[in-house]
Amino acid sequence: MKKKLLVLLILVTSFAARAQSYLGYFHDNYAGVQSVLFNPASIADSRFKTDINVFSVSSSVGNDLYGVKLLDVFKDGYDFDSQAKMTPSNKNNGIINVDFMGPSFMFNIAPKHSLAFFTRARAITNLRDVNGNLVDQVKDGLDDASNFNFDAGSPNGVSHGWGEVGLSYAAVLYQNGQHFLKGGITAKYLQGVANGYIQGRNGKVAFVENTTTPENSVLITEGQLTVGGSQDWENNEDYEFDINSSGFGADFGLVYEWRPDYEKYDVSKAKPADNNFRDLNKYKLRFGFSVTDVGSINYKKGKQDTYDITGVVTQDMIDNADNLYDFLDDHYTKIATAKGAKTNLPTALHADVDWNIHNKFYLNLNGDISMVSNTKLNAVSIADRVSLTPRYESRWFSFFVPVSWMEYSGMQVGSGLRVGTFFVGSGSVLTNLVSKESKAADFYVGVKIPVYQKKFKDTDEDGIIDKEDACKDVAGPVENNGCPWPDKDGDKVLDKDDACPDVAGPVENKGCPWKDSDGDTLLDNVDACPTVAGPVENKGCPWPDTDGDSVLDKDDACPDVAGLVENKGCPVLDADKDGIPDSEDNCPILAGPKENKGCPEVNKATLEQLRVEAKSIFFPTGKSTLDVADKGENSGRLDAIKEILRNYPNAKFAVNGHTDNVGNAKANQKLSEQRAKAVMDALIAKGVNPANLTSNGYGSTKPVKSNKTAAGRAENRRTEIVYLGNL
Predict the structure, then answer these.
(1) Who wins on pLDDT, 583 or 486?
(2) DSSP secondary structure letters along 486-525
(3) Mean pLDDT over residues 92-116, rounded?
(4) What is the pTM of this model?
(5) Rounded Cα gap, residues 540 and 527, in angstroms
(6) Is 3-452 a CATH 2.120.10 domain?
(7) Is domain 604-726 given the CATH code 3.30.70.1450 in the classification?
(8) Rounded CA separation 721/612 (Å)
(9) Average pLDDT, the chain
(10) What residues have CB less than 8 Å from 588, skipping those under 6 apart?
(11) What is the pLDDT, as a whole number, of residue 138?
(12) Per-domain residue ranges of the chain
């Protein structure tokens, strides 16, 4: 044992591999069955018909104690202990993980439902809260150590290897407009392989060197030490596989996608060739949340021993020890023993946000949080992590550069790619190439057989995909297996719809030529009466005589009333019953004598009424402007005159204007003419026929009273309407 025994006692091992696998790759939309390991909901509404993993492996190494330039480690003569840069603290940490994925596959069982099956072998080692100063002090062994006294604290180490067989189910849970939610669950059968753990409590270590007799140098220790595993390693150093060391585990996940352009992917509007848009990215933002590795494995043959390690041992005792258990049993007190060991899975929370920046460029922010306490006995866990990963992603190629902060090892930058059936990458490769103090290294590689969803080919764009189209280069209907219907007679009526497939005819007659059934030179398609001959002018129908007066309706001015031929089919009418037919009556609605062409004669009463109304029309002094405002006195007089004149449409009337003798005779003459014309124009404006009116002015030449008195002159200033006779 010698120096190695001391290293085991104080847990001086700080190398670790990361518990996270496939860093930078698993959030790719084409990660396929690998993505189910981190979020089982991811396989719903997938870009795959199926994805088959042939094999893939992921492993990494990192710690917070040793920093190295990774390429130097592989050079001849490199001394890790002396050339690596150490950053010891009272609580240095590390973990170890190897993740091998065996034959696995995923596939869609329905448009909104998917299944995955996977096989997986895993191994994780955790070392927590190790006093790095103590490691640095004794890395060369006790022979070279100076006197020292260290608080070893409560270091905690565990290593666990197991296998998994998992079945995942994912489905679309909600889809409404731009909101899309899917969920998934994984059930896992766990088969334990091997487990070992060691934990100190309140440990202290002091070394007193005897330079005279080194073999008498002593190691003074305090505290407790618990050692255990999946079998009784104390009594049987040979590994024994136990099929009964098993357990069950589960993963749970949700994925929400924001799809602002959801109308572009409306399945109800999809063409057959679109394949319901299953091959396309439809989100702008994707949010994922999952809980993985809930469960444990029960090692029924496991054994756990706890020792009080308070005591003193010499260098000679250490050098002569054969194994750890013999050394502990010989020199310390065993205070407790327990049978069986229950080892948890590295339960963790995972969250990610994926932003589709533009087309095939994405930016992903994701992180892991361990749900396992670092102080728990026999408990494996992951390291907390946050990663920002830009990536380019297409069906057959992806490239990504994860930038991560890792618990223990700090910042690291990696790179990876996927080409067809092959993918490879590392979450730390770029850091390893340039950093002189790299504390982590990882890689992953895999081979798979992807079968992608894709848009179907429709060469002739007739809505029938090529594999179902009997005429893929020529558009045709579904009913004819994608082939166009024939048209033998070339009349643009397909044979399937053509009643006369061998003779050209119009579409309206089902592909048959039109007939002329009644022989009136009009074809039936334009003949309104195809079975009765009729003139072209009446669309092939005979002219009707509705009232039976032998005058056809087309010539009958009164088609619904029998009349005389000479009266264009209308009966003789005498509306005013004055014995003069309306056709000869100049006033058909006013009775009048025949000698006056049926119009009434103007009588004395009418003339008197006209005289009274006319003389009451007033003008402003010296002016011919006629105020005919609505409801004014002049307007009322004019309306009354108009109604009288309308009763005599065959009579001719004169509007005469007169003045007194005051003033210039020529001016009076002109004023009388203007006033007479103003009255005539006002009557015409109100609807009197201009042919019935004339106007005259007489100045002061025709007084009716003496101009010597004011009253006489007032009477002489007048307008008169006189009857001139018939037209």
Answers:
(1) 486
(2) P-TT-SSS-TTT-SSTTS---GGGTT-----TT-SSS-TT
(3) 92
(4) 0.65
(5) 5
(6) no
(7) no
(8) 10
(9) 85
(10) 573, 574, 575, 576, 582, 598
(11) 66
(12) 3-452, 515-571, 604-726
